[in-house]
Design goal:
rod-shaped
């Protein structure tokens, strides 16, 4: 019975470590909004008469969009080592106190 309880608590803790926090989701949403704004800016610049300056500005806007899109993905799905270590320590403390 105790082994089953510890096993269930361990799984619960591990799944808690694997989920994305609300703070990280909010940051990711901010990055996604910035990416969308940069895409809109590039589209707006692309509708202007084509000059080398417009093309360079459009490329910069697309690069900015790609940067923020990657940053949003990393923020959502990649856990840092510190969070993983803290999660494991919390798991061990939880097991030790039970």
């Amino acid at each position: 019975m105790i082994k089953n309880t510890i096993f269930i608590l361990s799984l619960t803790q591990l799944f808690g470590c694997a989920t994305t926090s609300q703070e990280r989701l909010a940051r990711a949403k901010t990055y996604e909004e910035r990416s969308e704004r940069a895409n809109q800016q590039a589209s707006k610049i692309g509708s202007l008469p084509g000059t080398p300056d417009n093309i360079e500005s459009m490329e910069r806007a697309y690069e900015e969009s790609a940067y923020y899109k990657e940053k949003a993905h990393d923020t959502k799905y990649k856990n840092t080592w510190a969070e993983l270590i803290v999660g494991v320590i919390a798991l061990l403390i939880g097991i030790a106190t039970k």
